[in-house]
Amino acid sequence: MPTDESNDKRALRAELRERRRTRPAHVVDAANAGFTANLIALATEKQARTISAYLSTSFEPDTRQFLNWAIADGRRVLLPIARQDGLLDWAEGDGETETEGLYGLPEPVGGILGPIAINDADLILIPASAVDQHGTRMGWGRGYFDRTLGSMEKRPPVFAVVFDDEILEQVPRELHDAPVDGAVTPTRIIRFS
């Protein structure tokens, strides 16, 4: 039986998904330039040589310009590949070559490295529907990143990538939800204590 938190999450996700889908194109374009600049600043600050990121969908903050910069700058980029068993495999990506994966999400084309490859990352960038002021991240409901982060012995800094209006006072939290260390928005880099 679903908990109140899972019902609250489902309703909030639907609202946030609709907000993303109806965001005007000129607003998204301006935001994407800000995302790229702030992601570059964060990767540079953290001196991240290996970065775990993701290929954004059309309604997510665009990570592709950042991925192009990281690869051109000689950084290793690990991108997730969803598996049926709820785990993530990883592949080194070029930010451009991709295929449609599980759930219709974009995935990299390349040799599969397996779930433990994420342990090489110096910085992890993950998608989110929202993040609250305490670092509670709400994903899209499949739990892939929560399982991945929860299984890591030594976790590098983890930052969610969200629009400014997706930093909320509080999001519903369940026991399995893995917190993030910060969030990257078009206008700022936020660190949670």
TrEMBL record:
EC number of the protein: 6.3.3.2
InterPro entries noted in UniProt: FTHF_cligase, FTHF_cligase-like_sf, NagB/RpiA_transferase-like
SUPFAM superfamilies according to UniProt: NagB/RpiA/CoA transferase-like
GO molecular function: 5-formyltetrahydrofolate cyclo-ligase activity; ATP binding; metal ion binding
Cofactor(s) listed: Mg(2+)
Binding site for substrate: L55, E60
Top-level EC class: ligase
Catalyzed reaction equations: (6S)-5-formyl-5,6,7,8-tetrahydrofolate + ATP = (6R)-5,10-methenyltetrahydrofolate + ADP + phosphate
Membrane-spanning parts: none
Protein's recorded name: 5-formyltetrahydrofolate cyclo-ligase
Record lineage: Bacteria, Bacillati, Actinomycetota, Actinomycetes, Micrococcales
